Amino acid sequence: MKRTLLLEGRTIPYELTQKPVKNINIRVHADGSVRVSAGPWVSPEAVDAALRQRSAFLLRALDQFAAQAPLRPKPHTYGPGEMVYLLGKPYPLRLQPGPKVEVRQTPSHLLLTLPDPEDPQRRVRAMEAFLKQTCLTVTTQLCRQYQPQLAPFGVPMPEIRVRSMTSRWGSCSPAKGRVTFARQLVEAPFDCVAYVVCHELVHFVHPNHSKAFYACLAHIFPDWKAQRQRLNSYSYRQDPHP
Fold first, then answer.
1. What is the pLDDT of residues 75-102, one digit of tens each?
2. pLDDT value at position 68?
3. SS3 category, 34
4. Helices vs strands, H then E, count in the chain
5. Angle between helices 190-202 and 120-150 in degrees, nearest 10
6. How far is CA 215 from the centre of its chain?
7. What does 151-187 look like in DSSP terms, one character per residue?
8. Burial level of 198, CB count in 10 A (0-12/13-18/19+)?
9. Would you put residue 234 in left (φ > 0), alpha (ψ -120 to 50) or beta?
10. pLDDT (average), residues 168-194
């Protein structure tokens, strides 16, 4: 359900999802969207009242994300010389013609080989496939590293999927034993990726963002606050030598 609310003279659109949750949950995403979940017994007017009570948090988060907008990645065309981030390190892209589609990582650059380097659609398909597979490899490695710490709580080694996502870094489906990560996550530094992996694994124990959730997260990944800040601010993109 799409709704709008007037806060301090600003019109704030938000999407309300009603489902069996205990609290009214407010989430502000990096793209400036606001999503709220509440129980079906909670009236829209009560949701509006909760948003007004948390107006300082809501407006501050929207302003912070708006200030970060210039740092966010722009759509890739993967042309020659374009900078591609891989685990926090910038790699200029080089193109060469060849009969086989291949992406090769060197210490100084990424080399994309394909039959027609001038075709932007083929470049995008080849590079996105490479980055998706790299993200899957890295997140699988990290899940194998951290899952044993949560195994005593009944957390399984999950099925891992990767897909392009623009409003979140990952999601967890405990009932299906599955975690899904944003393909874009592979551009971030390794420690940021580790934070997201741990965040999603802890959701098998605590499906919400309660104090118990963050206590569990801090137990297995003490540096989570710093890495979340680094990831969501895209600060690693300002450093030419991450």
1. 788 999 999 999 999 999 999 999 999 9
2. 67
3. strand
4. 6, 11
5. 60
6. 21
7. GGGT----EEEEE--SS-SEEEEGGGTEEEEEGGGGG
8. buried
9. left
10. 93
pLDDT reading at 135 higher than 90: yes
Q: Which two tokens stand for residue 82?
A: 């374009």
Contact 51, 93 (CB under 8 A): no
The per-residue pLDDT of the chain, averaged, comes to 89
DSSP state of 75: P
pTM (two decimals): 0.72
CA dihedral 218, 26, 174, 201 (to 10 degrees): -20
Neighbours of 75 (CB within 10 A): 5
Domain at 83-238, CATH homologous superfamily: Metalloproteases ("zincins"), catalytic domain (3.30.2010.10)
Note the pLDDT tens digit of each residue in 95-124: 999 999 999 999 999 999 999 999 999 999
Domain boundaries, the chain: 2-71, 83-238
